[in-house]
């Protein structure tokens, strides 16, 4: 991919600036229809073809399996003319949870797990909560406790942390502790535990943290506004002095508040990662001018935003 590649020349000025941005952390503010997925995938191709990154040095993270597959397909198309011994398929493109599953299976012993651990779904977790509820509590309350446990893990909180922000129920900390003990004894992990265990292992094991930072020299995150506390903490653990970090998000949109997503993570990104550059994608390719004018009038009333047209 040369500097005259159609993949670059077909980008608008802001998109191109984001794709060819250098090493400092990059925050791309992009609304729906502004070509943000195109920018992320083209930047992956640019890092490989122009900056000699090996595909297996790149990690791209998004929120759904569908989005991950779409990103992989786009990268494959951009790099279709590469030699067969350096396929784009070596780029690791995963959801947060599937990445953490990948990571924990490769570091199972250090995480206190069997590499073939199972992953509990909501019904498995609900059944487990019911076994640790105090006798005077109704089984119907189990779902509320499970929701609180999930929120605690989304907020990067273990049973030993202050849990008042999650639940004021006096028995919640003990239920959470017993749930974790039984889950650990089963040798399995629940959905929220995938990220929490990964974060805790990276924090305490400097050797593993150093190794994973050396492996993934470029990290790209899509839909960053939907990150919760644990996902934001994971990114901070993966980021090191040599990391090329790019995140894309919309500070006017967040749909996963029910699972702990907090737009403050995108608002505070520049403070967490000093030296951050901010690029705004403000050209829309999806909606008419009339619709965009109305939308802009609405989002201008948002109290917490970095601001874009």
Features:
14 helices; 11% strand; two-stranded parallel sheet; alpha/beta
Explain what you see:
With 309 residues, the protein is an alpha/beta fold. 46% of the residues lie in helices and 11% in strands. The chain is built from 14 helices and eight strands. Helix 9 runs parallel beside helix 11. About 5% of the residues have low confidence.
User: What are the secondary-structure elements, in order, as H or E?
Assistant: HHEHEHEHEHHHEHHEHEHHEH
**Counted beta strands:** 8
* Structural class estimated from helices and strands: alpha/beta
Fraction of residues in H or I helices: 40-55%
Taking Cα atoms only, what radius of gyration do you get, to the nearest Å? 21 Å
Mean residue pLDDT? 87
Terminal-residue CA separation: 31 Å
Taking pLDDT < 50 over at least 5 consecutive residues as the criterion, the unreliable ranges are: 285-299
Short description:
This protein is α/β, with parallel strands linked by helices and 309 residues long. The protein has helices at residues 6-9, 13-19, 36-49, 65-78, 96-106, 122-132, 142-154, 172-186, 191-204, 206-215, 229-238, 264-267, 269-272, 289-299; strands at residues 26-30, 58-62, 92-95, 119-120, 189-190, 218-221, 244-249, 277-281. Helices cover 46% and strands 11% of the residues.
